Amino acid sequence: MTWTASIKPTVIAASLTALVLPAPTAHADPDPLSVGAYLHALNATHVPYDNPGRIVDIANTACQQARGGTDFDAVHQNTAGNGYTAGQAGYILGAAVAAFCPDMRPALDRWSSTA
To answer: What is the pLDDT of residues 36-60, one digit of tens each?
Structure first.
């Protein structure tokens, strides 16, 4: 089993959790509702963070990388490189895409469905 296959349920769960939250518009400076939805999704999935601003920056970076054409394997590794486990990075990606870059949802879904 690859690390990608092992986090697939994590990404799907984070995406589904975030689906119940309002869908924000995508823009560079996230609105408070987007930030609240993102942090709520992380709290619900027990992803630890000490600094809300830093974890929002991690999400924005992931969205920028994905929009810039970086594949989600690399985006996932970059996210995990911030001190998160593979599973936690999967939750962060799912919540980030749902809250800050829903236009990247198809690419995330394709990535999470490959094993």
So the answer is: 999 999 999 999 999 999 999 999 9
